[in-house]
């Protein structure tokens, strides 16, 4: 079910335990795309795990959890036409993007809190980016178990999650308030400073997973930083 606020923004209603707070309209598609490009720029590409050879060889199967606008899936599918890409999200935001979808890509509505509806050992690579706002601290461990279950032996998992805060003292007072409000929301649902180390422990405790690496990047989302700052405007 959807609802329209002030005849303008379109939101989802009644979508389970996630309390998904974001719109599902074309403006949200634009914001998600900007976020995607900010992350891509910071990490110098769409992925960091060593899967390029497998993607180019073909017959690889890739899942993007919380695909949002679908921009990551569409870009990857266009670059690697011999592999298969599936994007899932609780919100149909990907339907609002008018860009064409490559034939080797598809999208599905999925509430991950009810489990991932794929068979064991299905995917060569599972990608997930910025789902902090959709997974509570009690849901992370069973969610990771689901990812491990659907990952093929020898496959790769890449999780991109983060904290938010104000580091730029030149930002105006209103932007400080916006950032702190956003961070407060995320802390309320995820205990932010606690959950990221916990996710690390969850991954390390799964005997099926090896060669676990953790890296960090600072992404300047301030308005003064240019385009990335528009992600929250």
TrEMBL record:
A GO biological process held by the record: methylation
Alphabetized GO MF terms: methyltransferase activity
CDD domains according to UniProt: AdoMet_MTases (cd02440)
One family name in Pfam for this protein: Methyltransf_25
Protein origin, superkingdom: Eukaryota
Record carries keyword Transferase: yes
This protein's UniProt keywords: Methyltransferase, Transferase
Keyword Coiled coil applies: no
Segments forming domain Methyltransferase: 62-155
PANTHER family: 2-METHOXY-6-POLYPRENYL-1,4-BENZOQUINOL METHYLASE, MITOCHONDRIAL, METHYLTRANSFERASE
Protein name as it appears in the record: S-adenosyl-L-methionine-dependent methyltransferase
Species classification: Eukaryota, Fungi, Fungi incertae sedis, Mucoromycota, Glomeromycotina
């Amino acid at each position: 079910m959807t609802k329209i606020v002030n005849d303008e923004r379109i939101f989802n209603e009644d979508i389970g335990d996630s309390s998904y707070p974001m719109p599902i309209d074309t403006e949200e598609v634009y914001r998600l795309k900007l976020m995607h490009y900010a992350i891509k720029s910071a990490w110098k590409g769409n992925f960091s795990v060593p899967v390029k050879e497998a993607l180019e060889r073909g017959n690889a199967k890739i899942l993007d959890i919380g695909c949002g606008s679908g921009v990551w899936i569409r870009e990857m599918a266009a670059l690697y036409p011999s592999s298969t890409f599936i994007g899932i999200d609780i919100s149909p935001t990907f339907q609002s993007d008018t860009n064409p979808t490559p034939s080797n890509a598809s999208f599905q509505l999925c509430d991950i809190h009810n489990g991932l509806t794929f068979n064991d050992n299905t995917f060569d690579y599972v990608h997930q980016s910025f789902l902090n706002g959709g997974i509570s601290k009690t849901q992370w461990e069973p969610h990771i178990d689901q990812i491990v279950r659907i990952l093929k032996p020898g496959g790769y998992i890449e999780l991109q999650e983060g904290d938010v805060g104000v580091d730029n003292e030149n930002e105006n007072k209103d932007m400080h308030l916006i950032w702190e409000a956003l961070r407060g929301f995320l802390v309320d649902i995820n205990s932010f400073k606690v959950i990221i180390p916990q996710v690390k422990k969850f991954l390390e405790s799964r005997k099926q997973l090896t060669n676990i690496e953790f890296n960090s990047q600072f992404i300047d989302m301030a308005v003064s930083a240019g385009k990335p700052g528009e992600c929250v405007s």
